[in-house]
Amino acid sequence: MARSLALVVVLVFIALLAGFQADAAVTCGQVASDLRPCIPYVTGQVSALPPACCNGVKGLNSAAQTTADRRAACNCIRSQASGISGLQPNRLSGLPGSCGVHLPFPISASTDCSSVS
């Protein structure tokens, strides 16, 4: 009886964990990788927007198709941006427009990600 109960608890836990992972397909590692080429631009180290940066912004736009994806991407950007020394907020928030991409959420270190839909 105790063994059966333990098995049920483990199966419920696995089902819940799988459900949370299925909510957001975009990972922070993916977002960071997509936007990594933008760091020299958003910190003012280079004046021209690198093509690899725009490719990353386009990749992020393609990947963030659901509310859960967009919120995960937003939270990752907020988290990553706080650790970038010399970040120029206007350059960061202007990335989508500069790349000709319309993201359904702002790229900013101060976005309220819970309001992203």
From TrEMBL:
Q: Which Pfam families does the record match to this protein?
A: Tryp_alpha_amyl (PF00234)
- Signal sequence span is 1-22
Sample GO molecular function, one term: lipid binding
- State if Transport is listed as a keyword: yes
Keywords annotated in UniProt: Disulfide bond, Signal, Transport
Q: Which terms does the UniProt entry file under GO BP?
A: lipid transport
Protein family according to the UniProt entry: Belongs to the plant LTP family.
Q: Kindly provide the name given to this protein in its UniProt entry.
A: Bifunctional inhibitor/plant lipid transfer protein/seed storage helical domain-containing protein
Gene source species: Zingiber officinale
